[in-house]
Amino acid sequence: MQAIAAGQYKKAQYAITKGVEFVQIDLESISEFQEPDLETNMERIRRLGIRYGLHAETPAFGGRELPHLDSAIDLDYERGHRRLLIVLEEAGKLKYEYVLMHSSESTPFLLLGRELQPTDLVDPWGRSFETFIYEQGGTKDFKKNWILNWLWDKNQHYVWIDIMGQTPAAIITEAQQERRLHLQQQKELTLAAGKREAESFTEEQIQLIFKQVEELYEFELKNRFMQHIKSKSLHYGPERTAYYIIAKWMEVNNDPLWEDMIEKSIEYYSKADGKTKDEWLDDKKIEKVNGKWSIENEKFRLENRLWVPSVSAKYIWGHFNQDKCPDKDWKRYEDPKKIIKDYDYKIPFLFETPMASTGIEEYLRFPNPIQMYYLVKEIGFDYSGLAIDIEHMLMCNLDVELSFDLLPDDGGKYVRVVHVGWPTALGPAHIPLPLGSEQQMYLYKMYYKLRQKGFGKNNKDYYIIFERGGGADPIQQSILAIRKIVEFLEKDINPGELLAHPEFFGVQVGQIASYQRQREIIEDHGRDPLKGLIIGPEEKHTFLGKGATEKGKRPEEWDKEELR
What we know:
seven-stranded parallel sheet; alpha/beta; single chain; elongated; TIM Barrel
């Protein structure tokens, strides 16, 4: 439900008069957990038979300063992890049945070049990026570290441009030119001192000097790079550098969040464009490097919607897998799974399809449930799941039906929550869902696709929730429509057979849209349009004849006029 701005207890009370037994509460600030007597009051709600889930903070009602779990900036990573732990800990105390959060609404990768950020980068576990490079590169020796050597390759100079503003080649060329000028000045000074012949250098000697300069600058530049990625100084979009390097690391290590997720993304975008996969890749001039998807292919790298979701997912994964950090002495962050295990029942942390504002509809880092599926599978079913909001998907310019069709065959079982409302791309709208409407039919068709892939087909709890909007009565017939959707999903009725079941649309004896009730309404009000229009004597007509007598007409005059 949408916030009522009165704290969790009052938000939970809202469900009592709406004919439901479950309510989703929107957390607008972690300060809400300081509400007086909150645990006692939430216990009262449970005694009334009301259960509840928690929607964690989102920029939609929490502001832009909220940290995101896919950030590679040290400060944001730390803040995001700390808030994650607070939310899970408090949700456990209050006996929430799930916690969900939008997957990622951080600054789109494409727009990072205009965002000032500190160049204090971290890896997916939140460690200094310097530590990560030395560790994953295998050595602190600049000449033997594969990551630094890969970065030094001229084809990877986009990384240096993003964080240093210049390519290494340009910096070295400037140094060589300075050295040549210095040599020329030495020669001129020698001549000025009165010597007959200045010391001269052969071209071979000059090239040797240049080579020495290059080797010296290679060391210095790599050292400068390592210092720069742990600096508090501001730069435009240094987070891109972390994403580039983590992408290459994931490729090299055959990370499960890399190849499969990218393949599925390519399949989605090619079909969305009405092309085969090969046609789409040919048009984009995208190809594999040594049999793998790699950002070394420039066209692939520039098509960042293919690979950025993988890196975004890896950072989120790192928050939930602190125990899998290769540095066993790394103890900075508590593992969220430990908090979940501490309670009588596991509270799944669900990743909801995010919202995109106008202008960045297609550019969010991690928007599609077919991508999110791989993350929740890696985190584990007992701890994680998906929350689907079709309105959000439309806002992200996603083809909902295609996304559900391409969801892996077991993908539906990971969908633990769906948010129901009139499907519109102009959200967040949360418009009521009329009983018997085309929108009810459309949503059923979409949810049926999820049902065939496991949605609600095991012993876990699954939730279909109407997110309320503003206005005096923002729910209207939505609860009735949702009950019908649930009833028919449980019966596994194919959407093509719905017309043979008028009760799905409320057309059944006793229901609001039934033939019998509609006939009674017509009988009661069918003559309403005639009020005040018909005048006639009461003796011959069943309608009130007062209007006729007021005009001075006598009953016998009506008889004569009738025979004329």
